[in-house]
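Action item from last week, closing it out:
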Amino acid sequence: MQRPRLYLVVVMILAAAASRLILHPPNFTPIGAMALFGGAYFADRRLAFLVPLAAMFLSDIFIGLHSLMPVVYACFAAIVCMGFWLRGGRRALPIAGAALASSVFFFMATNFGMWALGSWYPKTLPGLVACYVAGIPWFQHTLLGDMFYTAALFGGFWLAERYFPALAEAHSDAGRH
């Protein structure tokens, strides 16, 4: 990955993580978008996981650590993998679909984690349903945040590539399928 391109991807992810520290509606955050963006744009898969996870952890230090962090971070890593699917062609519809899928996945997995690991809900099917129902009001903000930040990160990088040709990805037919 070219250095200017690499630096811009890192800076954009750090800026998105920093936005978690400003006043915002509950769950209107860049979490899913950061993971998708990292997976889609880092050529090195290790960096695709490391940079977004590190940015997330840095912001969590300021926001506060909690018992559900392993579930949240596992979801985050899975969403980075969803971003890998976007590498072949970063077009609006697949990106929007991945953002939607990541929001739904995050909602399903973290609410299940809350039910399984927490003590707020009985470990029964009605308890699980109650946990998901209680999470619905939070989901709308997660979905809106993921869509907004996904558009900002992917759209912002697309614009940067158009206005600064040095950022454009070097294309090679070798090794492409």
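Closing note: The first helix runs from residue 3 to 18.
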